Every structure is written in C-alpha cells, then in structure tokens.
Amino acid sequence: MSLFPEDIHSAAAAIIRDFAAARLMVSAAESCTGGLISGALTEISGSSAVVDRGFVTYTNSAKTELLGVQARTLLRFGAVSEETARQMAHGALFRSRADIAVAVTGIAGPGGGSAEKPIGLVHLAAKSRSGALIHRKMLYGDIGRSEVRLATVRTALEMLRLLLTH
C-alpha cells in the first residue's frame, strides 16, 4: 500500500526504474508541495540509487539560502513566478549531485490568492545538466489544497520523465 494515489505511485516507480537504468540522479526543490515530490519518489524501493536530495523551501529566505534564488527575483516577480521556479531548479541541480532537478512554487490555497496570482497557480521548472529546461505554468483552480498539491506532484513527475528522454 502506498501513501499516494495509484497514478502517482506508478509514475514515481517508472521514474525510479528508468533513472536507475540510465544511472541518473534527481533532486527536487519544493515550496507548495512541501516535500511530496521527494516523498512520492522515496516511497519506491530502490529510490536511494536515484534520489540525491530534496529541498523544502517554503519561505523566501529558504529559497535564497538553500537554492540561491536571487532576492531581487523574489522582489520583482514574487515567489510564485516562472523566474523563481527556474532559479529554484537551477539551485537544486547545482547544489546536489543530481543530473535532473525539478522545482515547484505555487498557491495551494485556500487563502493567499489574488487576481494576478489566483489559488491553484503553480510554476514548475525542470532542468538537466545538459542545459535542457522545461517550464510549466499550471492553473489548477481552487480545487482544494490537497488536490492542488497532488496535481503539482503529477506534473512534476511528468516533467522529470520528459527531461529523461531529452
């Protein structure tokens, strides 16, 4: 039995299998998911060969201190932005032994949204050491905090698989 829904468990198992076969490692930088991506991956037996580390950077200072996100980026664009997600992915990649890193930052709700940045807005970025970079802006809507977080995990796992094939 898994802590996660079957689709997430299956996606995480496929990532662990395929990354292990390719001898690649992954890291995750998480804000709104609070470690769920790392949790989904480490739920799988054999994940220690693939998962290097996870960063839970819920505050702006944690994003700056642990991942090197620039303070001016946070001031200009905010924590929930493409620019911040990209810098989080870069920091997770280069502050780990991972070959591919994924980063997420968003507004899971029920509060914290605005007209410009509504509840359910999540920015995700995945980056590989070869320089490939994917960004996704997701508007999940006000579907509930847990559902926004789980939807974000699904998207993050999909992005890791995409970069594996690049």
From TrEMBL:
Highest taxon of source: Bacteria
Domain CinA C-terminal stretches: 10-162
InterPro entries in alphabetical order: CinA-like_C, CinA_C
Xref: Pfam families: CinA
The protein's name in its UniProt record: CinA family protein
Lineage: Bacteria, Pseudomonadati, Pseudomonadota, Alphaproteobacteria, Hyphomicrobiales
